[in-house]
């Protein structure tokens, strides 16, 4: 089954380069191209891609606002991988908080980009080391110790499995519980840790040695 990708970037040359390379991958299909964030939101609604390669700085609507809109409407049904030239915390943190599951820089090697795409679609995280460092620093500064103690033993078990990149079905199988129970535990984890997605929860787990 093909991975359907929408490319959102305001530079034609960048889009053409990505299309040219990704089309060489047997399991990847280019669903469409958007030249700004607003167009990405519209095409996401119409084309329902599996993943969007999203630039940050675009006219009309930037990548962060577009990500917020897309995640609000489609949730985990559409994964977003930020592909940008900016590695500072003023861009990384808002992008992840908006709902991007991955963050990579445009100087990434083509093969590494494909690996990142596949990782995201399999439930794993895909963050450039600089992005990871910014997020871990943010967590260490803002997360009070009591948050970790708020988790039950079972929630810690679920969080540890989630950090391995496992799907809800795989977590349920590993812990001998139902998928519905897994979803409930994950919802509780997000609430107690005050995070909004699996990427942030996994980073929290790594920071506090729960992985």
Give an account of the 3D structure.
Residues 4-121 form the Response regulatory domain. It comes from [Bacillus] enclensis. The chain is α/β, with parallel strands linked by helices and 211 residues long. The protein folds into two domains: 3-126, Rossmann fold (3-Layer(aba) Sandwich), CATH 3.40.50.2300; 143-207, Orthogonal Bundle (Arc Repressor Mutant, subunit A), CATH 1.10.10.10. The protein contains eleven helices and six strands. It has helices spanning 12-22, 37-47, 63-74, 89-98, 110-121, 129-142, 146-149, 153-163, 168-175, 179-193, 198-207, and strands at 3-8, 28-34, 51-54, 79-84, 102-105, 126-127. It has a six-stranded parallel beta sheet with strand order 2-1-3-4-5-6, with helices on both faces. Helix 2 runs parallel beside helix 3. The two termini are 31 Å apart. The mean pLDDT is 86.
